[in-house]
């Protein structure tokens, strides 16, 4: 029996994880669930999955949850509050596996705690890897934690690499990108895009932040940096190919000319089930792919001239140092401002460029250094919002 704690259980990946678990009550039990503010969803999850502990990062939400659980006769579930408590459950001995599914930089410290406690860590939350790069992977090597990628592209690459994950014989990895809801449209035509339009992804149903990142293609830029960190490859050996059908989730190209690809329905339960059960296989609940129904698979190069966010990410990836952390922090500020109606869709790159202009050449040597750079980049990005 694997005991699992889910960081970000009320989100899109968190809920999909619980759906997979519910198919296999004999294999998994839930130790802790954590979320930020969504009390209603957490109450439902407590009723259905009976965790031992829940944490709400938001203190008021924790209080409200505690009251409701008492009224429902679920007072035996421990309710904790605050970011520090999220980190505590991530490293607690009560679990052996941690699903890292918080969105954004808020997931960095708890995910690191899980890594330092040598857990099996399932990484959906890509921003911490983008921020810290190989520092994160060195922590994992040091503690002996097992890192299993959940992002569908990275999970696909993991599946296509040799079993020992060695890169000998690998020429390149190719990340596939659906192109998001505005594929084929000129960037300049997108000035009046609303959050609702940006979040309507053609193939995947996801949280708001990653949906906006997919619409700007920053998501693929973050994934490029994530892949370089996870698999220890230079950014120049990570290619991006637009593949509108989202059937091939990524490919590994070998020196002999072979390409290995992973195919499946665009459903996060597939990589989640893969990582939960690795190196075994379990059912995920996802629709199986009817290969005869796929009329065609298209691929083309992304038009970087028309994709400013992807361009910025590619250049941050190739610069290295603090540039990816700066890019990530400023992007979080910009996306948040866009979702709040404070920034136009086509202005999302502006605060990111401003932060990179000032800080791209900085470097860091430890996690504290990353957090300082992250703060500085956010401060610069904010100055660009109402100008
Ligand atoms: P989401 O917005 O649906 O859920 C985010 C979760 O994090 C929620 O449970 C929320 O309560 C929690 N959270 C938010 N802020 C927090 C804070 N400050 N402290 C503690 N908890 C907080 O997001 P999502 O779409 O599930 O994505 C989660 C992560 O997984 C992101 O990093 C995203 O890039 C990555 N990812 C998502 C998908 C997908 O299909 N949704 C696919 C690949 C990768
Ligand atoms: Mg992805």
Walkthrough of the structure:
This protein is an alpha/beta fold and 387 residues long. It has 3 domains: 2-150, 3-Layer(aba) Sandwich (Rossmann fold), CATH 3.40.50.720; 155-305, no CATH class; 320-387, Rna Polymerase Sigma Factor, Chain: A, CATH 1.10.1740.10. It contains 16 helices and 11 strands. A 7-stranded parallel sheet has the order 4-3-2-1-5-6-7, with helices on both faces. The chain has a 4-stranded mixed sheet with strand order 9-8-10-11, covered by helices on one side. Helix 5 links the parallel strand 5 and strand 6 (120-123). The longest helix has 17 residues, at 323-339. The protein is globular. The N and C termini lie far apart (55 Å). The protein binds nicotinamide-adenine-dinucleotide and magnesium ion (MG). Residues 151-153, 223 line the site of magnesium ion.
Number of helices: 16
Strands across the major sheet, in which order? 4-3-2-1-5-6-7
- Helix/strand/pairing class, anyone? alpha/beta
Low-confidence stretches: none
* Bulk shape: globular
User: Compounds present?
Assistant: nicotinamide-adenine-dinucleotide, magnesium ion
Mean pLDDT: 97
The strand count comes to 11
Question: What's the number of structural domains?
Answer: 3
Helix content: 40-55%
The proportion of strand residues reads 15-25%
Order of helices and strands: EHEHEHEHEHEHHEHEHHHEEEHHHHH
Oligomer: single chain
Give the biggest beta sheet. 7 strands, parallel
Distance between the termini: 55 Å
- The radius of gyration is 20 Å
């Amino acid at each position: 029996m694997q005991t699992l704690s889910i960081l970000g259980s009320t989100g899109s990946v968190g809920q999909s994880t619980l759906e997979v678990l519910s198919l296999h009550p004999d294999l998994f039990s839930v130790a802790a669930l954590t979320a930020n503010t969504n009390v209603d969803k957490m109450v439902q999850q407590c009723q259905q999955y009976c965790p031992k502990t829940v944490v709400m990062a938001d203190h008021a939400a924790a209080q409200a949850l505690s009251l409701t659980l008492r009224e429902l006769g679920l007072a035996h579930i421990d309710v904790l509050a605050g970011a520090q408590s999220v980190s505590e459950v991530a490293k607690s001995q009560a679990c052996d596996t941690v699903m890292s599914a918080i969105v954004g930089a808020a997931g960095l410290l708890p995910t690191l705690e899980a890594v330092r406690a040598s857990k099996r860590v399932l990484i959906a939350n890509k921003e911490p890897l983008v921020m810290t790069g190989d520092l994160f992977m060195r922590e994992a090597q040091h503690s002996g934690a097992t890192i299993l990628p959940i992002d569908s592209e990275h999970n696909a690459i993991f599946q296509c690499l040799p079993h020992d994950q060695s890169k000998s014989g690998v020429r390149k990895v190719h990340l596939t990108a659906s192109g998001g809801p505005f594929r084929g449209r000129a960037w300049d035509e997108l000035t009046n895009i609303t959050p609702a339009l940006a979040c309507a992804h053609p193939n995947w149903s996801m949280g708001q932040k990653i949906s906006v990142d997919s619409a700007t293609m920053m998501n693929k830029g973050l994934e490029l940096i994530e892949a370089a960190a996870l698999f220890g490859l230079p950014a120049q050996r990570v290619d991006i190919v637009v593949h509108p059908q989202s059937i091939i989730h990524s490919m590994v190209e070998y020196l002999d000319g072979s390409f290995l690809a992973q195919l499946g329905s665009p459903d996060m339960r597939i990589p989640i089930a893969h990582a939960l059960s690795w190196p075994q296989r379990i059912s995920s609940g996802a629709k199986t792919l009817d290969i005869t129904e796929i009329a065609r698979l298209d691929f083309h190069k992304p038009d970087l001239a028309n994709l400013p966010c992807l361009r910025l990410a590619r250049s941050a990836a190739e610069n290295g140092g603090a540039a990816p952390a700066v890019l990530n922090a400023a992007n979080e500020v910009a996306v948040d401002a866009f979702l709040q109606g404070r920034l136009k869709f086509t202005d999302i790159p502006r605060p990111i460029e401003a932060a990179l202009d000032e800080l791209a050449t900085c470097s860091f040597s430890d996690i504290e250094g990353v957090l300082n750079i992250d703060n500085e980049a956010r401060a610069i990005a904010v100055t660009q919002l109402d100008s």
